[in-house]
Amino acid sequence: MNTVIARLKDAAEKRAQFNRTYNELRFMPRETAIDLGMFPEDAYHVAYAHVYGR
């Protein structure tokens, strides 16, 4: 039972981290994103790879 709770807690923490990262990347100025080598439209994929490693 403890492992189920630990896995749920880990999943919730990762989702919160994903949401924070996604929002920061998505709403940064386009010029800043391009300077970093990405487009704001790529924010979902970049945030997902950062948090979940896929």
What is the topological layout?
Blueprint (H helix, E strand, L loop, with lengths): L1 H25 L3 H6 L7 H10 L2
Helix pairs in contact: 1-3
Explain the overall architecture.
This protein has 54 residues and is mostly helical. The protein has one domain. It is elongated.
Could you list some keywords that capture this structure?
54 residues; mainly alpha; 76% helix; elongated
The major sheet is characterized as: none
Rg calculated over all Cα atoms: 14 Å
Report the mean per-residue pLDDT as an integer: 93
Counting helices, strands and paired strands, the structural category is mainly alpha
Sheet-strand content, in percent, reads: under 5%
Domain count: the total is: 1
Number of helices in the DSSP assignment: 3
Gap between N and C termini, in Å? 28 Å
Give the ordered list of helices and strands. Answer: HHH
Low-pLDDT parts are none
Shape: elongated
Give the oligomeric state of the chains in this entry, treating copies of one chain as homo and distinct chains as hetero.
Answer: single chain
Give the number of DSSP strands.
0
Percent helix among the residues?
A: over 70%
